Structures are given as structure tokens and as C-alpha cells.
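Translate sequence into C-alpha cells.
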Amino acid sequence: MTHASGAHVDGYSLLHRWQAVAPGQPPHSEAARDRLVRWLTRYHDATGVPISVFFDGSGAAPGVSDSSTPEVEVLFSRAGKTADEMIERAAHRLLEYGEVWVVTDDSAEQQTVTALGAIAISCSNFIRMVEDAVAQLHCRVTRINKAGVSKFNQPKIK
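Result follows.
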């Protein structure tokens, strides 16, 4: 699969499928959302794919900081709107810039975004993509670090 111009993630759909991302935390909790954003940030670091994650609801409680980062945009639907509606609008607007992925297990949403021209990815497939990309990045960093240490520890020529 080629790199996307953007991945639009149904956050609660992904959290319900990927309970290991925040063990012991309810999928609708702030802690689970924060852990998911950290994993998505790692995925962005490994691939460069811009990510927007959408949640149903009014967002963080008053006084709690927004969890958006430069790498992962976190968006909450307003009253009377759904995350699905926001994902559809974003996917439609960004299609002219390249391939758009939508990550959800909602089959009706998958059909809708596919009809718009986006690529629907199941949560289980996306989880594998994230875990594989993060593992590959870890291996690359480890290899680079070992090479750097080896180079640093070489005897100096006088």
C-alpha cells in the first residue's frame, strides 16, 4: 500500500478493536484516547503519514488540555454531529491531494467513504500496519545506535 495523503481514524472504533493499546482502561476514557494518540504518533514517526483521529462527543473535559499534536490531529464531534460525518467531510475534501485512508470497522461507513473515493481500512488491518511500522522503526533506530556506538568506540589512530 502506498503512503496516504492522510489517514482518518474513527477513534472509538479503533479503541474497541485494539484494547491492548490501553489495558484496563475503558475505551471511552481519556487515558485510552491518550494512549491511542501516542501509538498513532509513533506510526506517523515511522511512516510520515498525516493522521487525524475523530471521536464522537464533546471532547476533553473543561480544564483538560487538548491532546492534538503536530503529528496527530485529535477532533471531537459537536452535539448533533457524529465522528463519521466529520470523517466523510474530511475525506471528501482531501481526496484531491492524494490517497485518503479511513480506518473504521463500521461497514456502512466503509461503504460510504469508498463511494466517495477513499480507501477503507479495517481496524484490525490498521493495527497490524501500525505495529509493523513501529517495530521496523525500532529495528532501524537500534541498528543505527549500534553502528554509532561501534564507531564511537573505535581506537583512535595517532
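Note: The chain has five helices and five strands.
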